[in-house]
Amino acid sequence: MSKLTIAVDTLGGDLGAEVVVAGAIQAVTEFSDINLVLVGPKDEISGLLKKHPSSNRIEILHAPDVILPSESPTLAFRRKKESSIVVGLKHVKEGHASGFVSAGSTGALLTGATVIIGRQKGIERPALGTLLPTPKGFTLLMDCGANMDAKPSYIKQFGEIGADYMKRVMGVNNPRVGLINVGAEEEKGNAAAKEAHILLKAADLNFIGNIEGREISTGTVDVAVCDGYTGNIVLKFMEGFAKTMLGMIKEELMSTTLSKIGALMAKGAFGRLKKRFDYREVGGAPFLGLNNIVIKAHGSSDALAIKNAIRQCVIFERSNN
Amino acid sequence: MSKLTIAVDTLGGDLGAEVVVAGAIQAVTEFSDINLVLVGPKDEISGLLKKHPSSNRIEILHAPDVILPSESPTLAFRRKKESSIVVGLKHVKEGHASGFVSAGSTGALLTGATVIIGRQKGIERPALGTLLPTPKGFTLLMDCGANMDAKPSYIKQFGEIGADYMKRVMGVNNPRVGLINVGAEEEKGNAAAKEAHILLKAADLNFIGNIEGREISTGTVDVAVCDGYTGNIVLKFMEGFAKTMLGMIKEELMSTTLSKIGALMAKGAFGRLKKRFDYREVGGAPFLGLNNIVIKAHGSSDALAIKNAIRQCVIFERSNN
After folding, report:
1. Which of A194, A269, B103, B231: disulfide with B252, CB 3.0–4.6 Å?
2. What is the pLDDT of residues A209-264, one digit of tens each?
3. B46 and chain A: CB distance < 8 Å anywhere?
4. Residues A185, A210 contacting (CB under 8 angstroms)
5. Which helix H or strand E contains A168, and what residues bound it?
6. Angle, alpha carbons A40-A64-A101 (nearest 5°)
7. Is the pLDDT score of A125 beyond 60?
8. How many C-beta neighbours within 10 Å does residue B13 have?
């Protein structure tokens, strides 16, 4: 391959294959040096492609089956050999593509990617990262749910693969890594965090020590690491709390005529704020620590989100060469 | 005692004894049926009391020493027998007061309260609760940091003491208890959460099952339980994230003239929002599972926060009789 090739799952997203195809078209338009492989039912995809100007940089890889989020990831992954996730990951494993994007079942993608693509040398467990918006840019939170009872050595490795990602994809020089904990002092935390602190300190990283919960969103660090149970809860709490807070703001703004008019005048500002919290601008959550890059796009991804998830793969792979 | 007596620590808060004395005066004015015991240096307190109209319902209990937040809680608690925390807790233990309020060192208060006052029958570990604002009222999050590696049985008991508090202090009928976890399914989570789910299900509680991070702030449950490591991180993340979000809103509002004017008109709405997130309105974090009620007031508590922390004790104790 002279050009970079990315495989894209057309199945499993909430909005169907149509938005994935549209996102793929956007991606080949934006990046003239990439090829895409759309994985899914051949007939459906070629039908959808006909709605767009034709591109010789998009090909189709037939996969008739889909793994639903409701299925047991490990069982479905083993049984559904013709599912888009299994077919797409194998395509990457065989060297036909350098990365994989999917808006499908998180569990099946994590299990499948680990088994088929395989772990990077020296990494015991791959982990799911998420870029959280901060006043200064983004902080990569990881693990966001791949490893429930993470050993201290896993948490240390999250720091390593997370720092590598921030360097390569976000262009951060010497990324600051922090351990999410209940206090700044080294001896604070649960048993895993205490030991992870010691390992992170000894690692070849710009480890700045423990950070408390309130520092996760302030841009104090570029990579914030913790076990996947805590990370998942923090991430989802952020989503819920942002919604709760915006709801409360709306309620208060609508409670008097004066503030209603004020809100109308400030509408543009709220639009810009919403955009800063819009996951579609980021694209997806990188699943790191594997031999190839895998991006978990949000289940409700639209064309823009899919395009940006492909962009994440492109930037990651370009930094490799 | 015919009247309810609450002991109040005048030392250890960021704003000094002055605001504690002012909060105590507010409390005896609001509640005609309580007595207060102010614990701290006798001369300083009587000097401060002179600035207010005299009350025969406030007495002073001499304690010349203070435990600083920078000190090791267990060491300080053992060495400083004349500290306000030790003297105040002993006063409660001896039956001279029914509850204790302190804005001092959290660690020393938790250690001291557990050792001096003692655990409630059937409760292995007391826990720190925090009332989080939701669109519908409050959700009690616990444990917020007293138990780092909480056993499943502790987490179950957090549900029991939390539900009791919500019933007694917040007047919630049949409080809904949820286990903070990474998915709704029973088999999800880390090892402790999986086992805690089984114990909570079997307990005599209105257990509604697992809740994900995004449901903590939506009012889906009255009591949200988890280990103290996770709870502390969620709580502090909320504080930091609310600040980050309000900062971003401000930044966007100030970026155009139109939205600047709009913001000015909507100022009242933002003021009301801030009040809903103001910890001073709640007063403090209850330390539950002990033989008496202990309230950890925020370190930066002012007179209003102290008064409301005393109010929490009063309501808790009244519901007992």
Report:
1. A269
2. 999 999 999 999 999 999 999 999 999 999 888 888 888 888 888 888 888 888 88
3. no
4. yes
5. helix A152-168
6. 30
7. yes
8. 24
Which of A190, A256, A265 is opposite residue B262, by nearest beta carbon?
A265
**pLDDT digit string (tens) for A126-167?**
999 999 988 888 999 999 999 999 999 999 999 999 999 999
Does A218 lie at the interface with B, CB-CB under 8 angstroms? yes
B74 touching chain A per CB within 8 A: no
Q: Which residue numbers in chain B have pLDDT < 50? A: 1
Residue pLDDT, tens place only, B171-216: 999 999 999 999 888 889 999 999 999 999 999 999 999 999 999 9
Question: Is residue B70 less than 8 Å (CB to CB) from chain A?
Answer: no
| B241 sits in which H/E element | helix B228-253
DSSP per position, B117-174: I-BPTT-SS-EEEEEEEETTEEEEEE-SSS-TT--HHHHHHHHHHHHHHHHHTT--SS
Test mutation, A71, A106, A217, A267, chain B, max B CBs within 10 A: A217
CA dihedral of B301, B25, B98, B38, whole degrees rounded to 10: 80
Residues in A closer than 8 angstroms to B269, CB to CB, are 249, 252-253, 255-256, 259, 262-263
Token pair in block for residue A240: 């819920």
pLDDT beyond 50 at A23: yes
